[in-house]
Amino acid sequence: MTILSFFTRASRAFNGYPASSKLLLLCTLSLSGGGVVAYSEAQVDASKTSVQVNEKDCKKKRVVVLGTGWAGISFLKDLDVSAYDVQVVSPRNYFAFTPLLPSVTCGTIEARSIVEPVRNIIKKRNGEIQFWEAECMKIDAANKKLFCRYTVENNLVGNDEFSLEYDYLVIAVGAQVNTFNTPGVLENCFFLKEVEDAQKIRRRVIDCFEKAVLPGLSEEERRINLHFVIVGGGPTGVEFAAELHDFVQEDLINLYPSVKDLVKITVIQSGDHILNMFDERISSFAEQKFRRDGIEVQTGSRVISVSDKEITMKLKAKGEICSVPHGLVVWSTGVETRPFVKDFMGQIGQANRRVLATDEWLRVKGCEDVYALGDCATINQRKVMEDIAAIFKAADKDNSDFLTVEEFKDVIDDILERYPQVEHYLKSKHLRDVTDLMKDSEGNYIDKVDIEGFKLALCQADSQVKNLPATAQVAAQQGAYLSKCFNRKYKWKDNPEGPRRFRGSGRHQFHPFQYKHLGQFAPLGGEQAAAELPGDWVSMGRSTQWLWYSVYASKQVSWRTRVLVVSDWTRRFIFGRDSSRI
């Protein structure tokens, strides 16, 4: 029996045992916060310009999900699809495991190994989910309507445009690359946001080497063709630089020995350090390793233009402007809101914002029954000082205009849940208990406080409000949270489970979303990685790379992709990376 046929039979056998699937799902979640996702089949009639539902579905509320990324797939994973008419719209008919895109650029992993077709995912659910491969062009917030278009260029007959109505809308479309309006970036740079981007980079790297070994080129021309520039010293840019260095040193210099000494990799970072969102120890370790590997790191440099031959930047320390020739430029500097989301923001009074704002329950502010998840939105956390008077009044049960320690303790759990920045503030000040906040101006403990003393105790808590990072981990947790809210939407309508309403009476229907940071990795090449894990634990070196392998393998969305990714890693160890231009 071949290895392929073995895995095929194993996959069929596994699909026949749902109890085993559930057990494996539980184990996978406990390891890494990720897991296997499963969905149900949907029958789609894409030739119609409007979507029709049968009489049975008319009784259900229609939930339309925009996007099949981390947030959208995580939302669909646990949603009770039998309770809703669920429809999904996305220009891509697959889910991509985006953290492994840098590995795709150099052939460490094949592109198809990290993608799972959406229709494979949804056919496994006990319910009906309809999927439309199209792009949302406009949201009509007033009429609860979407206008979509099939964007794949072909000569197939039929109308490409259609509209959808919704009762609930979940926007999970991610974001697009932010060029900061830098001249020449769109025309001359490569990006690393989609699977197609990684494939383009892979072909361009091979093109650079093939062109460099042609006869008749000067040494300077060969050096220019083999100068690879990465703009952005964040996790994506650093990981791509490390992958490219390994690709060159482990594979390409053996295939192109005549130009092995002419290759140069440069990372340009506007800040003072690369990986500045990580612990300082990791940032320093990464810079030292890159220095040993011969990867040039230019910090304090801002790119002001990019042409097809040169990249021009300004050195902040000296104020000088210099131009550097290149063979390839990869732009990895951040993200911005998609155009149709910006248009939607203008309709609901958020035109002056850069990112779509939601409340702590992921509901879009200014628009009823619309939710936004992942990179396309940010949570606008309410400040505790905005409600300080209402909190004091609710806690002051005897209307004495003073809060005792016991009265403070009665409301502190609701305060910590409604305003998580208070808990962050306690940790930052190394306070063991909330009663440590009840001190006078000289630092002495007191039995009770008035409104001014209460304000003094919490006035600095709002400084701990921070926006969540635009990562797959955040998006996945938000999707899982929102699906639970939808599943209990009617059950908890009359029996709310959330924190106390300090402005008004009763309690909030649900607990607000709270992000739990499970750590982050930074692969640095040479079978070494750095990790920042919960509990202020920092790990660096070869053992951390193997931890990275195990976590990322366990977080794959299906057994198919899990087997493919592990087999790709194994193939690379044995045979090296493939340098074919395909």
Notes on the protein architecture:
- Its main location: mitochondrion.
- The chain has 582 residues and is α/β, with parallel strands linked by helices.
- The strands form 9 sheets. Strands 5-2-1-9-21 form a 5-stranded parallel beta sheet. The protein has a 5-stranded parallel beta sheet with strand order 11-18-12-13-14.
- Helix 10 links the parallel strand 12 and strand 13 (264-269).
- Helix 8 (195-212) packs antiparallel against helix 9 and helix 14 crosses helix 15.
- The longest helix is centred in the middle third of the chain and has 21 residues, at 235-255.
- The chain is globular, with a radius of gyration of 27 Å.
Q: Return the average pLDDT rounded to an integer.
A: 89
CATH topology of the largest domain: FAD/NAD(P)-binding domain
As for the number of domains, it is 3
Count of discrete alpha- or pi-helical segments spanning 4 or more residues: 19
Residue stretches low in confidence (pLDDT < 50, at least 5 long) are: 1-57
Instruction: Categorize the overall geometry.
Output: globular
The CATH architecture of the largest domain is 3-Layer(bba) Sandwich
Strand order of the largest sheet: 5-2-1-9-21
CATH class category of the largest domain? Alpha Beta
Query: What is the CA–CA distance across the termini?
Result: 30 Å
Helix content: 25-40%
Number of strands: 27
- Structural class from helices and strands? alpha/beta
Cα radius of gyration in angstroms:
27 Å
State the major sheet.
5 strands, parallel
The percentage of residues in β strands lies in 15-25%
Quaternary structure annotation: single chain
GO molecular function: calcium ion binding; NADH dehydrogenase (quinone) (non-electrogenic) activity
Organism: Gossypium darwinii
Keywords: Calcium, FAD, Flavoprotein, Membrane, Metal-binding, Mitochondrion, Mitochondrion inner membrane, NAD, NADP, Oxidoreductase, Peroxisome, Signal, Transit peptide
InterPro entries: EF-hand-dom_pair, EF_Hand_1_Ca_BS, EF_hand_dom, FAD/NAD-bd_sf, FAD/NAD-binding_dom, NDH-2, NDH2-like_C
